[in-house]
Write a structure and sequence with these properties.
alpha/beta, 4-stranded mixed beta sheet, 6 strands, disordered C terminus
């Protein structure tokens, strides 16, 4: 009996559903991705071979080359609690509405006695602010670090975990006394460890770090 030949037909694949899924995923990632905010303060940091990325919940102390200091409370920090704490401890007299307005600002760069008046107007240009006083007679960074430490202690967060979130970013031309005042602010609050923000660069050729693919084995 002869074999029945089945006619061959070309296979047609409908990609409409797949294209819909692809565009939905693309739209999701575009909307969900957090964009890095523009640099408000111009700081040229030194280079290092570290490849660690600063976490979103970090506290960043920035030192500019003209000697000013600024504080940035990260997105995931207990920002509202810290502002409320320093408002109470330093008797700033800020209302809940003023605290909410203060919490929306990216940088803290004013002496405490100027905060209330600044909240009555539009957000000032951080690059033109005088910075947080850190001189030997009035180092307000001590008060800021104290409020941060107290809030995290009340939340029963270990100090070692807090130390990992304390970052210092300084310009190459910043003078040492400014950096020393930041160290004193930590020391006065019994905090002895913090991290420096630097520009990443490739490890030296032939070094142990280069051989391990850019990972510093000693810091694991």
């Amino acid at each position: 009996m002869p074999k029945v030949k089945i006619p061959r037909k070309s296979t047609a694949v409908d990609m409409t559903a797949m294209c819909d899924v692809a565009f939905l995923l693309l739209s999701f990632f575009i909307l969900a991705t957090k964009q890095k905010p523009p640099e408000v303060l111009s700081v040229q940091t030194p280079n290092s071979v570290s490849s660690k990325v600063a976490p979103d919940n970090a506290f960043v102390i920035t030192m500019t080359k003209d000697g000013r200091t600024f504080l940035m409370l990260g997105e995931e920090t207990k920002k509202a609690d810290i502002l409320a704490d320093i408002n109470t401890n330093k008797s700033l007299g800020l209302s809940p509405a003023e605290l909410k307005t203060w919490g929306k600002r990216q940088f803290i760069g004013l002496p405490l006695n100027q905060v209330k008046s600044s909240l009555a107007g539009p957000e000032p240009d951080a690059a033109k602010e005088p910075g947080i006083p850190t001189d030997s007679t009035n180092n307000e960074m001590i008060d800021w670090v104290r409020s941060i430490a107290d809030v995290y202690a009340k939340a029963q967060i270990d100090q070692k975990d807090l130390e990992k979130l304390l970052l210092v970013k300084g310009d190459n031309d910043v003078l040492y006394p400014v950096f020393r005042s930041i160290k004193d602010a930590f020391k006065k609050n019994e905090i002895y460890k913090f991290r420096l923000i630097t520009n990443g660069e490739a490890p030296p050729a032939g070094s142990e770090m280069a051989k391990s693919g850019g990972v510093d084995e000693t810091n694991k």
